[in-house]
Amino acid sequence: MTYRVCFVCTGNICRSPMAESVFRARIEEAGLDDRVEADSAGTGGWHEGDGADPRTVAVLEENGYGSDHVARQFQPSWFSRLDLVIALDSGHLKALRRLAPTPEDAAKVRLLRSYDPAADGDLDVPDPYYGGMDGFEECLEMVEAASLGLLAAVREKVEGRAA
């Protein structure tokens, strides 16, 4: 049985595709790519059908990650097929929990940086869209730091399931 994770930010062109790419690399490195799927979406549909922001693509490629991506808007009906919905900031967390059809679905929504044991206080991944490349690089650092803890949590869930 496949464990499904969806990363969600605002427009699905910066933070969530970055998190998706990094986490896909982590699950592949861990040998879990046959049991775990990762994708991403946005809370809004402004960029639906677009590729990732060129700055996201550049930062990912510079750091050895793939960047094949097409933006889409998160749909409430997806909750039934997802095991975990990862919000990139507290605004996304609130929006996704409001969209959740059931309390069980709302409980699937978590903040990405809650998986980073070194993160304290503000668990938001700042939106780099209106800034320069340094914001995208900082975003990648935060995503990478949290992805290891997320991988450990997902591995625990996957190993508890029948293959």
List the helices and strands and how they pair.
Elements: E1 3-9, H1 15-29, E2 36-42, H2 54-62, E3 84-87, H3 90-99, H4 103-106, E4 109-111, H5 133-159
Parallel strand pairs: 1-2, 1-3, 3-4
Helix pairs in contact: 1-5, 2-5
Description:
By secondary structure, the protein is of the alpha/beta class. 40% of the residues lie in helices and 13% in strands. The chain is built from five helices and four strands; from the N terminus they run βαβαβααβα. The chain has helices at residues 15-29, 54-62, 90-99, 103-106, 133-159; strands at residues 3-9, 36-42, 84-87, 109-111. It has a four-stranded parallel sheet with strand order 2-1-3-4. α1 links the parallel β1 and β2. α1 (15-29) crosses α5 (133-159) and α2 packs across α5. It is globular, with a radius of gyration of 15 Å.
Overall shape: it is globular
Number of strands: 4
- Average pLDDT, rounded to a whole number, is 96
- Given helix and strand content, the structural type is alpha/beta
| Widest beta sheet: strand line-up | 2-1-3-4
Cα-atom radius of gyration: 15 Å
Instruction: Spell out the helices and strands N to C.
Output: EHEHEHHEH
- Alpha-carbon distance between the termini? 6 Å
Number of helices: 5
Helix content: 25-40%
- How big a fraction of the residues is strand? 5-15%
Largest sheet: 4 strands, parallel
> Which regions contain 5 or more consecutive residues with pLDDT less than 50?
none
